[in-house]
Design brief:
Layout: H1 11-19, H2 28-41, H3 46-59, H4 65-68, H5 73-80, H6 89-106, H7 112-117, E1 125-126, H8 140-151, H9 159-168, E2 172-173, H10 180-188
Parallel strand pairs: 1-2
Helix pairs in contact: 2-3, 2-6, 2-9, 8-9
Amino acid sequence: MVRCPWCEGFDLYREYHDSEWGVPLYDDRALFELLILEGAQAGLSWATILKKRENYRRAFDGFDPSRIAHYDDGKVAALLADSGIVRNRAKVAAAIENAKAFLALTADGQSFSNFLWSFVEHAPIQNQWTSMAEVPVRTTRSDAMSKSLGRAGFKFVGSTICYAFMQSAGMVNDHLTTCPRNGEVKDRFRR
């Protein structure tokens, strides 16, 4: 298999590429988790976050926004002492603010999934890149998502983070055309 070259290096990365990356994700809680993890990645590699993902799930109560929104100083201190996650005060604070923003956004019954998928007209964009050099780090759609999330009170949601999130959540299919996952994702998850 000629995978996208970014995933080579260790088994967990390849497994993520082969089973999750680029697969359309519609579950509100799972999308919230992914957005928090993409924000945690800022300035780091996705490999770092992927290795710590299970620790994040434990530390952040399964990414339950209603629990995270009520974290107090004691919980923040515990998170900052937890070596299983990235111990960055701004990123921990952002996760709490993002939980509050998520609850506010969905308070009137709006689906977080519908909100996010609206930036791609509710259907995955099927790109046909032949090399990693062609893959953008941001687009006008990720710019729009970033601005909208920011206005809603979300933190660590710059356009580059939003584009990485869109790739991971399957809003864009950025598997290279030489990668078997390009066609598998396109054919299996076409809406």
